[in-house]
C-alpha cells in the first residue's frame, strides 16, 4: 500500500546509463548522474535543460518505464516499478501515441479502464476532461484524423482522466497554437490551484516555466546543476532566463553542481 | 481481471480494424476454392479430400495470423511508444503480457471460427456427414496455434527481430510434428547421437495434438484433458520466458 504521508516523488542519487549492443558493438550513454530532488505535495516543479540533458529520461524513471542504473526512486513512497505506486500518477509523454483506429472517447475509455475506472464514473470523467481539454466537439473523431495539437490535448486528457495526485508533463505545450498554450496553462493552474495536483513538467519555454512553476531544476548533461525557488528568479535581474543561461553555459565543475 | 479484458479486447479490435482477419478470410476462401477444385479430381474420395485439405488450410491461415501477430506485436507497441502510456498506468507487466496474449489468441480464434465455418458449410453442401471428430480436430489446431503464439512472443521479445521470431517459430513448429520420428532416427543411428535426444524436449510435441491427420482413421476421441494440460504447460513456459524479457524491457 502506498504511504499516504509520502512525498509524491523522491529521487536519490539517481544515475542512468543507456546500454545498447548492436552487431556485437556495445555503446553506453550516460544520461543521468547523481540526480537528487523531490516533488512536494501541491507544488509545480519545472525541469529545464537543453536537448538531450535528461528530462525525458527522468520522467520515464519516475514512472518505472525504465530502470535507474544507480540510486533510488520513490513514487508515493514505493518503487515505481510496482503497479500500485503508479495509481495516483498521470503522464503526458513527449509524443503521445494512441491506437489510430480509436476515437477520442474510446482512447479515454481504454486508459480510464486501465486505471480502474468504469461505469458512470468513467463516463462522467471522460465528459469532463474532454470539456477541459477543448475536445468536446471532436470526441467521436478517430485519432488518425487528429492534428498534432489535438493529439497533444488528448494526451493531456488521458493524463488527468483518473484525477492523479502527481501529473508528469513532458513538454506539454509542444505543438500547440498560441491560444491552446494559454488554455493548457489555465488547465495546469486549475489542476494545481483547485484540485491540489502536484505537477512535474518540462518545457523549453522559459517564460512559461517562469509563470507556472514554484520551483525549477536545471539539468545539464544529465547533472542537476541547480534547484531554484520562485523567489530566486523573481529577485534576479535577468529573471530565470539569465539564471538558466548561466547554469548551462558556465564550465562544469566550478562548484555550482549539486 | 478487468485490465486483462480491456487489453485483450483492445488487441482484438485492433486486429479486426486492421483487416488482418479479412485478409485471412479472403486467403482462406481462395484456398478453399482451389481445394475444392483439386478435390474434384479425387473423384469418389471428394469430400474426404476436401476435409483434409480444408483443415490443413485452416491450420495454415490461423498459424500465419498467430505467428505474424506474435512476432510484431510488442515490437510495434514499443516503436509507436504506445507501450509507455499503457505501462505508466497501474498495470503490472505480467498482466500486460497476459492481456495482450489473450487478445492475440482471440484474434487467432476468430479467424479459426470464420474459416472453419466457411469450410464446414462447403463440406455439408457436398453431402458430408458431420461428426464431432471435426470439432476435436479444430480444438487440436487451436491448441497448436496457441503454443506457436506463445513461442513466437518469447522469441520475438528476446531476439527483438520479427523475422527471426517468425522463422524460428516456424522451424520449431515443423520439428514439433516429427518428434517421434526424429527420436527414433537418433536412437537408430548407433549410440553416437543419443545424447541429442534431450534437445527434442525443446520443440513442442505437436504430433500429440495433431488430430486432423488421423481423424479419418476413426481413432476414437482424443485425450482432451491431456491436451489442455500439455498445451497449457508448454505455452505457459514460453510465456514465462517472454515475461522474463518484458519484465525489465525499456521500450
Ligand atoms: N533509448 C535510448 N537509448 C540510448 N540513449 C538514449 C535513449 N534515450 C535517450 N538517450 C540519450 O540520453 C540522453 C538524455 O535524453 P533525454 O531524452 O532524456 O533528453 P531530454 O532532456 O528529454 O531532451 P529533449 O529536450 O530533446 O527532449 C541523450 O543523450 C539521449 O541521446
Ligand atoms: Mg525529452
Commentary on this structure:
The complex is a heterodimer of chains A (258) and B (251). Chain A has 258 residues and is of the alpha/beta class. Chain A has a domain at 9-99 and 163-249: Rossmann fold (3-Layer(aba) Sandwich). In chain A, 34% of the residues lie in helices and 26% in strands. Chain A contains 8 helices and 9 strands. Chain A has helices spanning 55-62, 104-114, 119-132, 148-160, 178-195, 206-212, 230-235, 239-249, and strands at residues 9-22, 25-39, 44-49, 70-75, 89-92, 166-170, 198-202, 215-220, 223-229. In chain A, strands 5-6-7-3-8-9 form a 6-stranded mixed beta sheet, sandwiched between helices. Chain A has a 3-stranded antiparallel beta sheet with strand order 2-1-4, with helices on one face. The radius of gyration of chain A is 19 Å and the shape is globular. Chain A starts with 8 loop residues before the first strand and ends in a 9-residue tail after the last helix. Chain B has 251 residues and is an all-alpha fold. Chain B has one domain. Helices cover 74% and strands 0% of the residues of chain B. Chain B has 9 helices and no strands. Chain B has helices at 2-17, 20-41, 46-79, 82-87, 93-125, 133-159, 162-176, 179-188, 224-246. The mean pLDDT of chain B is 87. At the A-B interface, helix 2 of A face helix 1 and helix 4 of B. Bound molecules: adenosine-5'-triphosphate and magnesium ion. Residues 18, 20, 29, 31, 49, 51-57, 94 of chain A line the site of adenosine-5'-triphosphate (ATP).
Itemize the secondary structure elements and their pairings.
The complex is a heterodimer of chains A (258) and B (251).
Chain A: E1 9-22, E2 25-39, E3 44-49, H1 55-62, E4 70-75, E5 89-92, H2 104-114, H3 119-132, H4 148-160, E6 166-170, H5 178-195, E7 198-202, H6 206-212, E8 215-220, E9 223-229, H7 230-235, H8 239-249
Helix pairs in contact in A: 2-3, 3-4
Chain B: H1 2-17, H2 20-41, H3 46-79, H4 82-87, H5 93-125, H6 133-159, H7 162-176, H8 179-188, H9 224-246
Residues 18, 20, 29, 31, 49, 51-57, 94 of chain A line the site of adenosine-5'-triphosphate (ATP).
